[in-house]
Amino acid sequence: MVGTATKPQTRAKGQETARRVRKAALKRFAASGYAAVSMREIADDVGVRPGALYNHFPTKQDILKDLMLSHMSDLMSAWGAAHFPPEMDPLEQFVRFHIRYHLERTDEVFISYMELRNLEPDNFAAVEAERRRYETILTGILDKGTAAGRYAVENPKVATRAIIAMLTGIPTWYREGGRLSEQEIEDLYLTMVRKAIAPTQAHSQTEIG
Amino acid sequence: MVGTATKPQTRAKGQETARRVRKAALKRFAASGYAAVSMREIADDVGVRPGALYNHFPTKQDILKDLMLSHMSDLMSAWGAAHFPPEMDPLEQFVRFHIRYHLERTDEVFISYMELRNLEPDNFAAVEAERRRYETILTGILDKGTAAGRYAVENPKVATRAIIAMLTGIPTWYREGGRLSEQEIEDLYLTMVRKAIAPTQAHSQTEIG
Amino acid sequence: MVGTATKPQTRAKGQETARRVRKAALKRFAASGYAAVSMREIADDVGVRPGALYNHFPTKQDILKDLMLSHMSDLMSAWGAAHFPPEMDPLEQFVRFHIRYHLERTDEVFISYMELRNLEPDNFAAVEAERRRYETILTGILDKGTAAGRYAVENPKVATRAIIAMLTGIPTWYREGGRLSEQEIEDLYLTMVRKAIAPTQAHSQTEIG
Amino acid sequence: MVGTATKPQTRAKGQETARRVRKAALKRFAASGYAAVSMREIADDVGVRPGALYNHFPTKQDILKDLMLSHMSDLMSAWGAAHFPPEMDPLEQFVRFHIRYHLERTDEVFISYMELRNLEPDNFAAVEAERRRYETILTGILDKGTAAGRYAVENPKVATRAIIAMLTGIPTWYREGGRLSEQEIEDLYLTMVRKAIAPTQAHSQTEIG
DNA sequence: TATGAATGAGGGTTCATTCAT
DNA sequence: TATGAATGAACCCTCATTCAT
């Protein structure tokens, strides 16, 4: 109340612990599911007694909320900060960005889809809002491209969901070091996406061939 | 003690109970997730005490396994029994079938994707094998069509996954009575799928427009 | 649901367990206070695992509520069933009854006063209502006797509380086998109560004026 | 390290904190009971972190001991310092003093009776000794008055307990601003006490003897 | 004197499951 | 086939307390 009675060193240790809690919880939630993970397991991973977790997160639910909300906000910031050649088609930017980001953060992505129902209503609403904001990016690209005659999309919202479902499914089967490189995956999916929304005749898809 | 002590009446009652257990478990697993559902809740839904469940399923895990395996085998049989106009393109048949079936059985589909990790290894393997068999149907269609020059698919396995992810995502947002009819959904997705795998020039997609 | 599938023997065992839970809880609550007693301790006393307690009482609070409510109702029934010589003054009946009953049930009486604040509001209200009903018995006796000129009580409600506080205090210090017999206690207190509410004839209260 | 490192300012702040700890603990113990109050709650009330409490009291038990012992010693000093008209009957002095003091310090009185069992043996003995010293005051008054023929008390120790129980019960139901003023309570109780121990002239107690 | 982090123990409660009846 | 009682393990969380800073 009076100010900085606590030395920076102490506070730093606490933040390090919180970081490790998040990391352990993320791994465990992704592997076994929120409901199947116990606070004891997380504490063991962190190297701390269960009670100590409550110095950093008020409840188990708050750990989940933290992971999911910060994943969504990281995703948004990453899109904002992504750098692509300026001449690159926005759709290509989005597809490549989405695949890369989702292959880099498989655990976050996974729990972000799997644990939605384990969020309490308020937290669920917050995460859903972020998800819609993200989808709106793609919808905007499709809208604009369609208006310009570059794409032919009957229903941009449906197309958005279709494309995102398609792309987001990749980490469920893609394994690094497998037959296909990440680059090849990007190219394959980009081709399919482009064709799926291409104008039906006299295509501007010449860049593919 | 007398041999056939069980009267047909009793057996019938037992099968009816088993059916209700499956039904209740399906609803609950879909709504809350396997780990978050207790045998007591299922028993309450059925109108029976928890102990009685064990007359029908040896463990909770067996209920899950039963639901998932029978979903996969129902899916395969349904495909086998599906009737489409013989002149209909096999891809269209598959897409329409998949969407219809998955919109009819949202709970089964949902747990089939969500609860995979809660299956014990053997059960997981069995379900995965079925899933691969199902995916093979689409891969076969793509292979054939590509060989015939009707489609241009660089990597049929990847395309299979992409298409199935896209289609299977529908029930996560589609709501009956919403803006779009099931028929419209089918048509929209069919168009996207067709275009995504169409040969790049001189398209045979004229039947859509 | 269909009837008596369970044999009387099983049910009897359960009721015996419930009885022992009540008994153990009563002893422990009286000795250490509700908050300081753990369900594990009660279970140990009963010879059962903690979880088994929940087959008989939904929560710890329900054990307390049960003890307190049944104490109050037992008290009321006991008063209804008490037999005294018909010519005995009702006040004497009440005083003797109260002292006897409270010396016989010291634990119940004790928690009944000590644990009131640990009752959740609804349960508290129910117990308080019973307590008031009991006090009303004495108030009625005082009212009638005062109307008949046998007693001189300025404020019967205050007198009720004063007398009951006085009598209820006995078990806090009285020990069986001590200097005074229960009979002597009864007589001593009866004398004091009688005098305290006796009509003032030519009292030696002159020292007040 | 320099010897008198503690500035007077610091010490004053500490004593102020200790006072607030006592105050908060008193309120909480009275409201919920010692066992149900956590050090965290007390710390919150004081506006300090739990650990800081241990700069002022070595354990939670010591807070309780402090409260109870200082209550008893305050009570004794207050009796010593009480001023009544010299001609007032000592019994009246005691009754009025007791009622007044106990209505002024309801929380202290309450925990003093309720939390006895939560005192560790040594602390319990110390508090009990003080309580007996206090009761002895009344017993002395009764003894003297009986010897002088002013009172007729068969058993002064029993009468002491009866009177004190009666008086101490008042704060459990008396509410300031209610139907009766404190003055009226004093008068009512004083009358009852006086009559209860008055010499028996021609009493209707014939049924006892 | 106060803090924030941690401990170690234990709180009430729920769980899947077993089993005699 | 269904019941009610019980088990044994585990659940999330809170506790009084310690201690380096």
Give the chain pair forming the largest contact, with residue counts: C-D, 49 and 47 residues
General shape of chain A: elongated
Tell me which oligomeric state these chains represent: homotetramer
Query: What fold name stands as the CATH topology of the largest domain in chain A?
Result: Tetracycline Repressor, domain 2
Kindly report how far apart the N and C termini of chain A lie.
67 Å
Low-confidence stretches of chain A: 202-209
The helix count of chain A comes to: 10
> How many runs of DSSP E, i.e. beta strands of chain A?
0
Structural class of chain A: mainly alpha
Write the H/E string of chain A, N to C: HHHHHHHHHH
Rg from Cα of chain A: 21 Å
CATH-assigned homologous superfamily of the largest domain in chain A: Tetracycline Repressor, domain 2
Question: What portion of residues of chain A is helical?
Answer: 55-70%
Question: Which sheet architecture does the biggest sheet of chain A show?
Answer: none
Can you tell me the CATH architecture of the largest domain in chain A? Orthogonal Bundle
| Mean of residue pLDDT values of chain A | 91
Total domain modules of chain A: 2
Q: What portion of residues of chain A belong to β-strands? A: under 5%
CATH class of the largest domain in chain A: Mainly Alpha
